[in-house]
Amino acid sequence: MDETRKKIIIQEINSWKQSRMLPEQYCNYLLVLYSQGEAQPVTPQKSKSRKKEWINGIAMGALFLINIFLNYFTEISNTMQIVVTTFSILAFLFFLRRFKNTKLLLPLSLIGLLLLVLVETVQVTELIAAGKRSILYIGLFFNCGLWLWIGQKYKLLYFSISGILGLVVIAYFLLI
């Protein structure tokens, strides 16, 4: 095999190893195979990316907890709660778009986003149609369908299970 081709393949395997497209053992095996034992395996740079993931995960968790605290443990008006929740939903949409290629932060941003959409649905329903359970059930049914759809789209089993369980609970309360 010609040398430029070997170098390109070795660079590609190193990039796969750093981005974790393949397990490290496979990449090491391929590196040894293509370099005929000459290339030293490149260790992935974990520290900076891991720190960023932790910081972003903590930021998302803090934003979610602040939002829940403001909505349920303070005496601000319903309109202000809806505005704060809407801005938090927009922030989680930004997180979702930014972290769509990460294993840990994508599900965290989806969970935060969908829980805040659920909170927003209940708040808006209580503001617009206070005491009308049928409208609340329609909103909750929509949310469960959204959870189910997201679970199917991103192949996340826990979202699908949550959506199905939510639909079962809504159906139970509708039948009682």
Describe the protein in words.
It is a single chain. This protein has 176 residues and is mostly helical. It is built from seven helices and no strands. It has helices spanning 3-19, 24-35, 47-72, 78-98, 105-128, 133-154, 157-175. Helix 3 runs parallel beside helix 5 and helix 5 (105-128) packs antiparallel against helix 6 (133-154).
Please give the number of β-strands. 0
Shape: elongated
Structural class: mainly alpha
Overall mean pLDDT stands at 87
Helices, by number, come to 7
Name the poorly predicted regions. Answer: none
Overall radius of gyration: 23 Å
% residues in beta strands: under 5%
The secondary-structure element order is HHHHHHH
State the major sheet.
none
Helix content: over 70%
Gap from first CA to last CA: 73 Å
Short characterization:
The protein contains 7 helices and no strands.
Map the helices and strands:
Layout: H1 3-19, H2 24-35, H3 47-72, H4 78-98, H5 105-128, H6 133-154, H7 157-175
Key words describing this protein structure:
176 residues; 7 helices
